[in-house]
Amino acid sequence: MTLKVVSLFVCLVMVSVAWQNDYDRDIWFACPTGKSVTRIKSKHHNWFEDRLWEYSCGNRGELGKCQWFYNVNQYDGVLLFKCPNFGRIVATKSYHNNYYEDRRFSFQCCTPKKVKATECRFTNFVNVYDGYMDYTVPNNKFLRGAYSVHKNFIEDRIWKFEICDLDTKHNNNCKDKNKEVTHG
Predict the structure, then answer these.
(1) What is the rounded CA–CA span in Å between residue 13 and residue 173?
(2) pTM of the model
(3) CA 176 to CA 141: how far, in whole Å?
(4) Which end of the chain, C or N, has fewer beta carbons within 10 A?
(5) How far is it, in rounded angstroms, from Cα 10 to Cα 8?
(6) Mean pLDDT value across residues 143-164
(7) For the chain, how far is it from start to end, CA to CA, in angstroms?
(8) What angle do CA 72, 62, 104 make, to 5 degrees?
(9) Helix (H) or strand (E) run with residue 148 in it
């Protein structure tokens, strides 16, 4: 009996270690220097009406100057964000508000030094309301932006991500299939 209890405890601890925040708590995640976000996992809990988050990073070209963009969405509102100058998302912060049962997000972007983008586009929605999300940026692409819609009755968000093709051979201008967004 004791062995079963210990085994269950170890399994529960191992499962909970992967998430980088707790429900209703702030999250601040930054990739190591020179890396950008390449995977985003999240799961929703109806009691807390919030999500746990896990980010992973990888090499997607040498990075230069970085800048934070704070609170890019309003509570219960649409989130539409793109790193300027075809930068890569390298860090994120968010905080949860129990009244709105929603999060406000901030992103840090770094511009590329050498490797440029050739084409950018948004994915389809990568999750459903109240559902699990596990999105990996394909090889030879990088994460530039995000689009998210909040639904009040469900108290959750669905997500699309903007990804760009890497062009390691040329330093040409990028083709952006989506309208450029400025942030104030």
Answers:
(1) 48
(2) 0.82
(3) 14
(4) C
(5) 5
(6) 97
(7) 59
(8) 15
(9) strand 141-151
